[in-house]
Design goal:
The chain has helices spanning about 5-15, 30-40, 80-95, 110-115, 125-135; strands at about 20, 45-50, 75, 100, 120. By secondary structure, the chain is α/β, with parallel strands linked by helices.
């Protein structure tokens, strides 16, 4: 298990309210779109990060984490596992405080690197499932 309840709860409640969601597009059929809605319902600012830099839920999109002109607290990763490690490294580089790899996104080396850099990390879990499970929204 890559993320105990204490770490999950800390990321969802105490780390900060600005979440960059990598892979978020304006397609309501995608899991990232639905998770972003749940994050917004519990008071998070959701910043879309997608190559198309689409605006989603009224928030301007950016093509990369490096392009976001303000601090990001959590980087939520909806990309394939083979790309996730690079996103985690970018999260460290931009000064994020936590990284969250979604269900099915697994990169143990990236997990170790990210934790080694001092960030909180959850892997292979969904905040969309954890929010109601922990009674947060």
């Amino acid at each position: 298990m890559y993320g105990d309840d204490a770490t999950i709860g800390q990321i969802l409640t105490a780390v900060g309210d600005t979440w960059a969601v990598v892979g978020l597009s304006d397609n309501p059929e995608r899991a990232a779109y639905r998770v972003a809605e749940k994050l917004r319902r519990i008071g998070k600012r959701v910043v879309p990060v997608h190559p198309k830099a689409e605006s989603v839920h009224g928030e301007q999109g950016y093509a990369s984490l490096a392009e976001i002109p303000f601090p990001v607290d959590v980087v939520d990763v909806f990309v394939n596992s083979d790309l996730a490690g690079g996103v985690a490294d970018q999260a460290v580089a931009v000064g994020a405080r936590a990284v969250w790899f979604q269900l099915g996104v697994i990169d143990e080396a990236a997990y170790d690197r990210t934790r080694g850099a001092g960030l909180l990390m959850v892997m292979d879990r969904s905040p969309g499932r954890e929010i109601p499970r922990l009674g947060l929204g």
